[in-house]
Design brief:
The complex is a heterodimer. By secondary structure, chain A is an all-alpha fold. Chain A has 14 helices and 2 strands, in the order H-H-H-H-H-H-E-E-H-H-H-H-H-H-H-H. Chain A has a domain at 19-242. Chain A has helices spanning 2-25, 32-58, 65-81, 86-108, 113-133, 135-138, 160-183, 185-195, 197-202, 207-233, 243-256, 263-277, 284-299, 307-323, and strands at 150-152, 155-157. In chain A, a hairpin with a 2-residue loop joins strand 1 and strand 2 (155-157). In chain A, helix 2 packs antiparallel against helix 12 (263-277). Chain B has helices at residues 42-49, 75-78, 95-103, 119-138, 154-166, 184-199, 211-217, 235-239, 242-249, 254-258, and strands at 2-13, 16-27, 31-35, 57-62, 65-66, 80-82, 172-176, 203-208, 220-225, 228-233. Chain B has 10 helices and 10 strands. By secondary structure, chain B is an alpha/beta fold. Chain B is globular, with a radius of gyration of 19 Å. Helices cover 37% and strands 24% of the residues of chain B. In chain B, the strands form 2 sheets. Chain B has a 6-stranded mixed beta sheet with strand order 6-7-8-3-9-10, with helices on both faces. In chain B, strands 2-1-4-5 form a 4-stranded antiparallel beta sheet, with helices on one face. Chain B starts with a strand and ends with a helix.
Chain lengths: 324, 259
């Protein structure tokens, strides 16, 4: 029992070290364009982790993540151009987005699951229109450019490689904190709500309040990711924050695995890799991705992170058959 | 000493009267039962007490204090814990985690709920963990502590729910048909468990269908029919009450003959 636990711990440690190593070496082996793609993967992982925290743990659906991502990006663009240092602008845009999350969540979270999905979808659609038409603030359809490069103190992150590392370090911190969160009693309460709200309330868990807090964290992370996105190409436009993008975030969270905090990371990386490999297919890419989604949802409903578990089950079944 | 009291509670759904001026009390360290045929309004009364439904009129008093205005999530902190007729364990959690959930309102974990694993948090986790394992042992599920709740038998899920409620240090435990759908063996185990819990000094209020269990277990029985209390008293009084027999069997005497 104890042996099994410690070996599982080791296994986890090796996986984390392996992933870190690959991510650390990666930018030296590929061209700048691909480095940018993988940077984007890290940014998406942050926003998707937020979504996993909200959807996976409280059992709800949100189709508005790209809108929060956009709010974070525009807030960061405006603040950075006004001269706010990068770190402050990063946190400020996270907080502004979290505030928007609370304002939206306050009425919307009274609805559950499908109704909440509709409400967040409506929010996402209307935010796209606002991004396009509030020209004085967002620059309208053509977007906002001239966002200064990220800088922390004397260090300037204006190259592809340096920005890649910055993003992944932040992604690592976000993942670590999210992991701790899910292991706390707060995370336990969230899972209880997601499992059975009435039972959770009978044990003193204020379901609505916990959902709201988790929605706040979800939008905070979307805001942080948006801010990083704004500093990636240093130009943003409304088409980056449409409902279609929200659905991509949703897909990443689902195929990665909603029940594990690392699902968002896995989903974002897999999506990025697929998008990268299938670039040549152009429009047909969507069909392939769609087919893959269907396949995964049927055969790995708990997401790619559940693959080892599934493998173990299949192995056991095979062994069972052999012994018959 | 009266712990829980309903005072003229009425509730109707649309035109159907589920509860009509229900007044009853649950006394300290006793097992009080509410019995009645299907659809008599028993579960509705539990739902009204724990505010899952709200009463149309009347009050619920806990230690003499009116608790009718509270929300469902307030009762655990007060010490009023309940189980459900359809068992509601957290299926995707292990048994140990299920019981840990019961600890949520009373743990000394602090505001951040153990976000940082400080020395204090580790101590609390250790202490809580020991208590949780003791509770699982009490309900006879310790050896399955690491299994998922959805993978254990129905009767075990019901006992798990009791353990989860106990983790909250309740002052009164409301059990909604604890032996419903169980085989005789499981029923007996559950009855013994309830007896043990009661003897450890907990007040229990139980809704039950199974008269055998109730008659052997309870100190006081209320009988509900069509939303009204038609009789109350000790088990032997109830057993011979003609109104009760009629409510259960529609015709006199049969129940006495079969029991």
């Amino acid at each position: 029992m104890i042996d099994e636990r410690s070996s599982r711990l080791n296994w986890k440690l090796y996986t984390i070290m392996g992933v870190c190593l690959i991510l650390a070496v990666l930018p030296w082996t590929i061209n700048p364009f691909r480095i940018r793609v993988f940077t984007l993967g890290g940014i998406y992982a942050i926003a998707t982790t937020g979504l996993t925290l909200f959807m996976g743990f409280t059992g709800q659906i949100s189709i508005g993540q790209a809108a929060f991502f956009g709010i974070g990006a525009y807030a960061s663009a405006i603040l950075s151009k006004a001269g706010l240092p990068f770190v402050l602008s990063l946190f400020a845009s996270g907080l502004i987005t979290a505030l928007c999350g609370v304002v939206i969540g306050f009425p919307c979270l009274r609805a559950r699951i499908f109704y909440l999905a509709m409400a967040t979808l409506a929010f996402g659609l209307s935010m796209t229109i606002i991004f396009k038409n509030w020209t004085s603030l967002t620059g309208g359809v053509s977007g906002t450019g001239g966002i200064p490069a990220a800088a922390i103190g004397p260090f300037l992150f204006d190259g592809f490689i340096s920005y890649y590392y910055l993003v992944w370090v932040i992604t690592g911190i976000v993942l670590f904190l999210s992991h701790r969160l899910t292991r706390s009693y707060f995370g336990l309460a969230l899972r209880a709500i997601g499992d059975n709200e009435i039972a959770a309330e009978s044990l003193g868990v204020k379901a609505y309040m916990f959902r709201l807090i988790s929605f706040l964290i979800c939008s905070f992370l979307a805001g942080i990711a948006g801010s990083l996105y704004a500093h990636l190409d240093r130009v943003i436009a409304p088409e980056n924050f449409t409902a279609e993008e929200s659905i991509i975030f949703l897909s990443m969270a689902v195929i990665g695995g909603l029940k594990s905090i690392y699902g968002g990371l896995v989903g974002a990386i897999v999506f990025t890799l697929i998008g990268e490999q299938l670039r040549a297919l152009e429009r047909a890419q969507v069909i392939v991705v769609g087919g893959l989604l269907i396949f995964l949802v049927i055969f790995l409903p708990k997401g790619i992170v559940s693959f080892p578990e599934k493998l173990e089950k299949m192995r056991r079944r095979l062994r069972g058959k052999a012994s018959l | 000493m009266v712990i829980l009291e309903t005072d003229n509670v009425s509730k109707s759904f649309g035109g159907v009267t589920a509860l009509k001026n229900v007044t009853l009390t649950a006394e300290k360290n006793k097992i009080t039962a509410l019995i009645g045929p299907n659809g008599a309004g028993k579960t509705t009364l539990f739902n009204v007490i724990t505010k899952i439904d709200s009463a149309d009129s009347g009050r619920v008093l806990f230690y003499g204090r009116d608790v009718s205005h509270l929300k469902p999530y307030d009762f655990a902190r007060l010490g009023i814990l309940r189980t459900f007729q359809r068992s509601m364990p957290f299926g995707e959690m292990t048994l140990l985690e299920n019981v840990m959930c019961g600890r949520l309102p009373v743990s000394e974990m602090g505001r951040l709920g153990g976000f940082w694993r400080t020395k204090r948090v580790k101590d609390v986790l250790e202490k809580d963990g020991q208590k949780n394992r003791d509770l699982l042992k009490l309900v006879g599920l310790l050896e399955k502590a690491d299994m998922l709740a959805q993978n254990i038998a129905y009767g075990e899920q019901r006992r798990l729910e009791v353990a989860r409620a106990l983790a909250c240090n309740p002052k009164i435990l409301l059990l909604d048909e604890p032996v419903a759908g169980m085989n005789p063996e499981e029923s007996l185990e559950m009855a013994q468990l309830i007896k043990r819990i009661s003897e450890s000094g907990l007040t229990i209020f139980i809704i039950e269908h199974n008269l055998d269990v109730v008659m052997n277990l309870c100190d006081k029985i209320y009988v509900l029919n069509h939303g009204e209390i038609i009789a109350d008293g000790e088990p032997n009084e109830i057993q011979n009450n003609e109104k009760v027999i009629e409510a259960y069997l529609g015709r006199k005497g049969i129940w006495r003959a079969t029991s």
